Structure prediction request, 230 residues.
Amino acid sequence: MIENVLHAAIVMTTPVLLAALGGLINRIGGIVNIGLDSMMLAGALFGLILASQTGSWGLALAGSAVVGGVLGLVMSLCVTRLRADEIVVGLGFNILVAGLVRFFLKSAYGSSGTLSLPDVARLPRIEIPVVADVPYLGAILSGHDPLTWAAWLMVPVTVWFLRSTRLGLRLRAAGAAPQAARALGLAPLTLRDASTVFAGAMAGLGGAYLSIGVVGIFNEGITAGRGFIA
Prediction:
């Protein structure tokens, strides 16, 4: 019983962790991304469709990341170029994408909220020999998919990126002091756009994890506010 709880905790942490890492980079760059939930929702839908049509979970993840990144770019341009309020834009994107998803499901598949497709390529589970048989430790470390491992690996990588790379330092400068960054020859708005694209891509991966990694179907409420939690 406890092992099942531990395993489920790791599984359900993955989509939130992916979106949170993207939101962190975005916040460091100077934008509070309230629209992560919309990008997760779009990623979940397109991930399921691509996983069914192509039979490849890798292509499904890539497509979900692209869809999330495109939404992130459009949102960022509204904030950085049109000078719209980031909170209002984020909330607007959540409402807009939810409505578009419902319209798409109804018009393309005749579905009223839930989409189940045949031959969906699910994320594979990796069983670690010996470790899988160890009580408690096996539930924590074994039986997880590649995206879960990638999400946890991204935590130290993100810390290293922000602290030790030139691009990370520039991103921090763009978020903390955009005028000073501009005086040094940097392009803070472009850096903010890039950070929002990254946040959208990570949220899209988090959404795809829900649809092809956890349940194997899509529902318009599949994110259940995980974008806001992130």
About this structure: Residues 26 and 195 are 5 Å apart (CA to CA). The chain is about 75% helix and 0% strand.
